Amino acid sequence: MVVFREATLEDVEALAPLVVRLKRLNEEFDPLLKTREEAIEIAKKYLREALEGGKSVILVAEEAGKVIGILKSDLIERCFYEPRLEGRIIEFYIMPEFRRRGIGRQFIEEAIQRLKARGAQLITAEFPSLNEIAVSFYEKLGFRPIINIYAKEL
Amino acid sequence: MVSDLERMKKERDKWYQLAIKYTKYYAGKFATVPRVPVTKLTDFAIWYTPGVAAVSREIHKNRELSFELTSRWNTIAIISDGTRVLGLGNVGPEAAMPVMEGKALLFKYLGGVDAVPIVIGTTDRDEIVDLVKKLEPTFGGVNLEDIESPKCFYLLDTLRKELKIPVWHDDQQGTAGATLAGLYNALKLTGRKLTDSKIVLVGAGASNVCTFRVLVAAGVPPGNMIVLDSKGILHPEREDMDRLMIRNPWKYEIAMKSNKEGVKGGIPEALEGADVVIAASRPGPGIIKKEWIAKMNKDPIVFALANPVPEIWPWEAKEAGAKITATGRSDLPNQINNSLMFPAVFRGALDAKAITITDEMMIAAARELAKFAEEKGIHENYIIPTMMEWEVYPRVAAAVATKAIEQGIARVKESWQYFHDRAIEIIGATRKTLELLMKHGIIPPFPD
To answer: How far is A97 from chain B (nearest CA, A)?
Structure first.
């Protein structure tokens, strides 16, 4: 039985490795997503700041007391567009052996509820363009692409 | 033992020298032979124009007739991009050709199958798929050969799905099938069952990835197996899992399904309390150590299949308590040899005009091989037939064809006896042809 709950500072140690795993997965899709050596320390700092900043919703998925997934989303004010308040999923990772059990979908729904409660009017997700697994996952949940980010190394 | 090793090395050097000398003398290993009588030029009015136009028209009306009115029914392609040739690695298509010619010779001699070696100038997986699909109208089957992993998994999966003729990758299915055959009898001799043995697979390349799938299909619970690659035991928490998910989903699947106890570490951790180890990793010796074998359950089964040198020598494994050993070598007992599989599997699949070769057909072949050995009397040094026992080939062919009918994928639905007799006839005809060619000096004897 998987439970979802809001992360606290005490979860940082357990969550940071999952963030790093996600970055390493992203690295598979593009050399411009090469993960830095010291990623684990950066992840801890990044999570701590997000938890203290109050602009994020960070959720933990747990089974039998073990952390098996993370979902971090940010609340973003869209100054030109309507609707105004966007909840953007930035980090989303579930440990391999817990995949294909529908946990991902539940996790997203859980996040949507909480973001909605915080005033979000739309939900977005960011991931590497070539991650086809993510593309099909979000499309199945009714998401569609709205903005492209193109890159060119200088 | 040192003298044994020296003897084996000398033996090998001798074969190397002879191979160069004779291959140069005979200038390649195969040529095409007519199937029809030709006594006068007017016969070509039948075999070529104008007569042949009528045959073309028939096939134009019904393409399936190409299996009856052309040699397609017995002709397969051996496809290689030369990226993983024997133990030599990526030597390129031209250097792969001698191996493919040798394979064609085995196909013909042991299975009566006309195999055409085709080495290709691309290593791109989608280009290979495209090419093989375009070759389909010529052939009754496709044998993929010496193609690197994980590309070989993609090619086999994709081509099996998209072609309406059998596609086989011998480095996967041939080795896995022969392994299963040997394992059936090794388990019998040590009083074990496939369903409750703890099996460790060392190496997660072409053959062991396939062996895993086939063992599951044969009834081994996937959780009872532990699989290792060069980085150690596969388990879902390993750091490189996502990388495997993207780059080698076949290995990723194994990591998800195997190893229910969640054992972590390397070969010694995996072997502790195991009944069987099947190593198909890299040449030894010393990849598997004696003291690790000693930690296995009583009377363990040790298959060390790397060539030319097994991961552990059989005598070392036995000193450490192994009850039954097998290798890939012809100069040691219990050779797990895919030449026992592919000629007969294709003979059966072609004669049944099967649209594919399923894992069940492969398991049927393995069972028949095991049964044959059992009937002759299995013991520690005889768990699997040898290539010399050619009576086994028609039996395996018949077992494969019969299974294809049972699974509803055969175009020809005849009896076991029919396929058995037909295989004997076709394979026998090959031998007679060869005898005649040699008798008349068309194939001259070995030069001095």
So the answer is: 6
- Binning chain B into helix, strand and coil, the percentages to the nearest 5 are 55, 10, 35
Contact status, residue B362 vs residue B177, Cβ threshold 8 Å = yes
Q: What is the pLDDT of residues B308-341, one digit of tens each?
A: 899 999 999 999 999 999 999 998 999 999 999 9
Going by C-alpha positions, the residue among B144, B137, B145 that lies closest to residue B164 is: B137
Mean pLDDT, consecutive 10-residue segments, chain A of 154 residues? 96 97 97 96 98 96 96 97 97 96 96 96 97 96 96 96
If you compute the radius of gyration of chain B from its CA atoms, what whole number of angstroms results? 23
Do residues B266 and B234 make contact, with C-beta atoms less than 8 angstroms apart? no
Choosing among 3.10.20.30, 3.30.70.970, 3.40.50.10380, 1.25.40.10, the CATH entry for B28-172 is 3.40.50.10380
Angle between helices B342-351 and B416-439 (to 10 degrees): 120
Task: Give the DSSP H or E segment for A7.
Answer: none
Is B77 part of the contact surface with chain A (CB cutoff 8 Å)? no
Whole-number Å distance between alpha carbons of B120 and B81: 5
**Is the ipTM value over 0.85, yes or no?**
yes
B243 interaction partners in chain A (CB closer than 8 Å)? 24-25, 28
Question: Is residue B387 within 8 Å of B410, Cβ to Cβ?
Answer: no
Q: Among partner residues B242, B252, B256, which is closest to A25 by beta-carbon distance?
A: B242
Of 3.50.50.60, 3.60.15.10, 3.40.630.30, 3.40.1000.10, which CATH number belongs to A2-140?
Answer: 3.40.630.30
Q: Taking 80 as the threshold, does the pLDDT of residue B1 lie above it?
A: no
**Architecture per CATH, B191-322:** 3-Layer(aba) Sandwich (3.40)
